[in-house]
Amino acid sequence: MDSLTFEVQSLFYQSAYRGCIALAQMHSPSGPIDDESLLRLVYAARSALALGDIPGARQLLGDDAEQPVAMSVLLLADFMEMHHAGDEEGSADVLEQMATLLDVVEPGELASDIVRYNVGLALYTKGDSTKALETLGVTGTGGSTKLECISLGVHILLAIHRVDLAEKEYLAARQWGDDSVLVQYMEAWIGLVRGGRSTQQAFYVYDEMSQSSTIANTQNMAPALIGKAVAQAAQLDVPAASSTLQEAASLDADHPLLSANQAVVSALATNVPAEDVDSWMSAHTNAVPDSHLARMWEEKRAALEEAVASMA
C-alpha cells in the first residue's frame, strides 16, 4: 500500500468520509485503474455508503466493476437499498451473492478482508449478529489478524453487551497492531461502554486523534472532535462537550454523527425531565440514530427498569 492509499484508508477509519472521497477522487487516474487506485476508490465508495449516498458509491466504482473487492461494495450498496426499502427477499439474494465472493478472493490480502467485512456488515445489518461474527472470524478469543474484521466484530460484541469478549479481541489486536488507528478506536469504544474511569482513556484517544497535523482545522477533524465530546459528556462535563461539538460543527456541520450527539448533549445541558427524555431523544435523534450517547442512555434506562422490576 502506497502512502496516498494509506492516507485515504486512514480517513475512512476516522469516519472522515467526505475527506476520504475527495482525496481518492483527486488522484483517480483518467485512464486504466491500477490496484492502488482501485483500493482508494473502494474506500471512497465505502465512505459514500456510510454517508447514505448509495448512487455516489456506485458512481465511484462504476456498475461493471469486475474485481471481487469492488463487486462486494456494489453488492453492499444493493443490499442496503433493498434492506432499507423492506425488500427482505431481495436483500437475502444479494447477501448470498456477496457470500460467494469469499471463495474467489485470496485469503490474507486486504481485499479479502474488505470483502469479509462487507459480508459481515450486511449480516449484522440484517440482524444476524452471530452469523456476522462467524463470518468475520471474531470469536472473542482474539485469534483473528484481520484488523477491519476485528473492529467490526468488537462493535458487534459491544452492541450485544459482550464487553468481556470485545476486550479480549482488542487486547489481542493491540499485541501486534498497537499503532493502528482502528486499535486505538477499539480502546475508546470499550472505554465509553465500560464508563467510569475508562471514559478518561476514551477522551485521551479522541483528543490525540483530533490533534493530528494531517487533519487539524479541516473537516476531517470533525469526527475526532465528536468522539472527544462524547467522552466529555460521559464524564458529565457537559459545557466542554457542547463547546467541542460547536467546534466540530464549524468544520463539518453535516457530518452524520453530529446532530444526534448535539441533541443528547443539549438534553443534558437543559436538564430535560426524566419522564420526558424518551420522547425528547426520539424527536431529536430519529434522523441520525447512530449516537454513542443515545445508545448509552437506552442501555442505562433498560438496566434501571430491569433492576426495578427485579425488586418488585
List keywords for this structure.
ER-Golgi transport, Serine Threonine Protein Phosphatase 5, Tetratricopeptide repeat, membrane, 312 residues, mainly alpha, globular, protein transport
Write the layout of secondary structure elements.
Blueprint: H1 3-13, H2 17-26, H3 35-50, H4 54-61, H5 68-84, H6 88-100, H7 110-126, H8 129-136, H9 147-159, H10 163-177, H11 181-194, H12 198-210, H13 222-234, H14 238-251, H15 258-269, H16 274-285, H17 292-311
Helix pairs in contact: 1-2, 1-3, 2-3, 3-4, 3-5, 4-5, 5-6, 5-7, 7-8, 7-9, 8-9, 9-10, 9-11, 10-11, 11-12, 12-13, 13-14, 13-15, 14-15, 15-16
GO molecular function: structural molecule activity
Protein name: Coatomer subunit epsilon
Main location: membrane
Short description:
Keywords: Cytoplasm, Cytoplasmic vesicle, ER-Golgi transport, Golgi apparatus, Membrane, Protein transport, Transport. Belongs to the COPE family. This protein has 312 residues and is mostly helical.
Number-wise, the strands total 0
Largest sheet: none
Based on secondary structure, the structural category is mainly alpha
Give start-end ranges of low-pLDDT stretches.
285-293
Q: Helical percent range?
A: over 70%
Average predicted local confidence, pLDDT:
87
Multimerization status = single chain
Order of helices and strands: HHHHHHHHHHHHHHHHH
Task: State the CATH topology of the domain at 195-311.
Answer: Serine Threonine Protein Phosphatase 5, Tetratricopeptide repeat
Q: Strand portion, in percent?
A: under 5%
CATH superfamily grouping of the domain at 195-311 = Tetratricopeptide repeat domain
Q: Per the principal axes of the C-alpha atoms, what is the gross shape?
A: globular
Q: Which architecture of the domain at 195-311 would the CATH scheme give at its second level?
A: Alpha Horseshoe
Tell me the Rg in angstroms: 20 Å
CATH class categorisation of the domain at 195-311: Mainly Alpha
Helix count from the secondary structure assignment:
17
Distance between the termini: 59 Å
Keywords: Cytoplasm, Cytoplasmic vesicle, ER-Golgi transport, Golgi apparatus, Membrane, Protein transport, Transport
Protein name: Coatomer subunit epsilon
Subcellular location: Cytoplasmic vesicle, COPI-coated vesicle membrane; Golgi apparatus membrane
Family: Belongs to the COPE family.
